[in-house]
Specification:
Layout lengths: L1 H22 L5 H4 L2 H5 L8 E3 L5 E5 L3 E4 L3 H4 L3 E4 L5 E4 L2 E3 L2 E3 L2 E4 L3 E8 L5 E9 L1
Parallel strand pairs: 1-3, 2-10
Antiparallel strand pairs: 3-8, 4-9, 5-8, 6-7, 9-10
Length: 132
C-alpha cells in the first residue's frame, strides 16, 4: 500500500512540475499580436508620475501621465491642457472603491502645459515635454 501511495505522490508532483513549466513558456503568436502588446513593443510600460509640487515632466508619445493628488483633494481636482492635440486628458474619478488620479495620454511630440485646479480654486501648472 505504501508503495502505491508513493507512486501516486511522485506522479502528481511530476504533473504539477510539467504544468508549472508549460505555464512559463514563451508568448504564443496570438498573444504577441494583441494590440496592447504591439503598441509598446510587447512590454507594458509604467506611467510617468507627476508628484504634487512638480512643475515639469517628460513623456514619450504613447505614455500615460498620472498627476498624483492627495486623496482629500481628489474629488474636487480638475485638469486641463493648452494643447489638446498633444495630450488626451482624463479627470480624477472613482471606480467602485478605487479613487483614480487625473491623468493624460501623450498623443504627439511637443510641449503642453497642464493646469491643475484644486477644490479651493488654487491652480498650478506642469509643463509636459513629449518626445517621439
Amino acid at each position: 500500500m505504501k508503495f502505491s501511495v508513493r507512486k501516486v505522490a511522485i506522479a502528481a508532483t511530476a504533473l504539477t512540475a510539467v504544468a508549472l513549466i508549460s505555464g512559463c513558456s514563451s508568448t504564443s503568436s496570438s498573444d504577441a499580436a494583441s494590440p496592447a502588446a504591439s503598441e509598446v513593443g510587447g512590454q507594458v510600460l509604467p506611467p510617468v508620475m507627476v508628484e504634487e509640487g512638480q512643475t515639469e515632466a517628460t513623456a514619450k508619445v504613447g505614455d500615460f501621465i498620472v498627476f498624483n493628488t492627495p486623496t482629500d483633494k481628489l474629488a474636487g481636482t480638475t485638469i486641463a491642457t493648452d494643447q489638446p492635440d498633444l495630450l488626451e486628458i482624463s479627470q480624477a474619478k472613482q471606480e467602485g472603491d478605487a479613487l483614480l488620479n487625473p491623468g493624460a495620454k501623450a498623443l504627439a511630440a511637443g510641449t503642453a502645459v497642464v493646469t491643475i485646479t484644486n477644490p479651493d480654486g488654487s491652480t498650478r501648472d506642469v509643463t509636459i515635454t513629449i518626445t517621439e
